[in-house]
Amino acid sequence: KIVLKAINSLPKKLKETIVLYEFEDYSYEQISKKMNIPQGTVKSRINSARKLLKEELSFLIGDNSDEE
After folding, report:
1. Alpha helix (H) ranges present in the chain?
2. Per-residue tens of pLDDT for the chain, all 68 residues
3. φ and ψ at 9, to 5 degrees?
């Protein structure tokens, strides 16, 4: 529930990209074609989504790296 809430809180473009990649097993190329965007943009959006999710969910894994 917590992870789903975090995913749903992402901006639409990031959410759509990360869901296709992580949950629907699309490749960068497949996402690029489906969304009509360059593969570099796909990679960038996945990276951005992961960063935001890590920040949002860091308490689940006890990540205190930002506090150092």
Report:
1. 2-8, 12-22, 28-35, 39-61
2. 888 999 999 999 999 999 999 999 999 999 999 999 999 999 999 999 999 999 999 888 775 555 54
3. -85, -10
CA-closest candidate to residue 33, choices 25, 24, 42: 42
Interior angle at CA 54, CA 30 and CA 41, nearest 5: 30
Cα–Cα dist 37/15, whole Å: 15
Alpha carbon distance 27, 10 (integer Å): 20
Angle at the Cα of 18 from the Cα atoms of 27 and 23, rounded to 5 degrees: 70
